[in-house]
Specification:
- With 270 residues, the protein is of the alpha+beta class.
- It folds into 2 domains: 119 residues, no CATH class; 94 residues, no CATH class.
- 35% of the residues lie in helices and 9% in strands.
- It contains 8 helices and 8 strands; from the N terminus they run βαββββααααααββαβ.
- The strands form 2 sheets. Strands 1, 2, 5, 6, 7 and 8 form a 6-stranded mixed beta sheet that branches.
- Strand 6 and strand 7 form a beta hairpin.
Amino acid sequence: MTAPNGAATPLSRYGTRVPTVSPRKGRTSVPTPTPTAGTPAARPVVTPTATISTMIVCLPDGLPSQALTATQLDRHFGVSGTLQPRFWASPAMWLWQRGHLVAPRKGRPVYCAGGPAKLLDLAAMRHAAGVGAGIRHQLWQRVVHGTRPATPWPTLLARHLADPARYPRERAVADFHHQPRVNAMRMHNAASHGSGYLSVGQLEMFQAGPMAYQHYSASTAVCGDALLTPDGHKLAPASDALTHRVTYLEQANRYLDTVEAHQRLIAVTL
């Protein structure tokens, strides 16, 4: 059917016919604006460098025991730091096997800087770290009760790096520390010492929830902040943001779960 003026009319969703409106003569459609040289470009995305304090080094086969020192690790692998007694030795280890551990210490469990994977109790380390993290998260919930979720430091740092002129670092630091939740954590740390300390650097991890924080702490206990494979490949998070930390922990845990029993691991504090 056609309209009285002879033009076709589309059918509306209500079942009535609406006459087609023809554009008036002399009128042109407004063109879509296109970017010009003076148009400001989109703000670049800047990823801050991740903080690496502990690296797990997987030593190549055949490496002599004399190379298991901080000086030799720096010379041969470019890892400059000190050996860290971080790993738990397996309770099923024989006394003569203690000589295969790196920098063992007395006590139960036996702490050491590393050794063959079969002599390290990685499962117990994960379990203990997860239990401790659960208790710590309960404490954190009481400390920050009544405060709003805060913006993590990596987010503000990335904003500063993307536009240092408009958002200087001093302002980013001030914005972070002026948040009530951050102040609640800092006030707790000022009045507490030892195991009750709550790192504001882990704010994003705390805010992810108790189970997420437990899994994060359990994985970090074994994987550290970075991992160096025997062939020189380095696994590390892209930044301190939780999403990048999780990506690293997925890769590092998958690698450590598949290493051979004789593979030697060593922890280094950078």
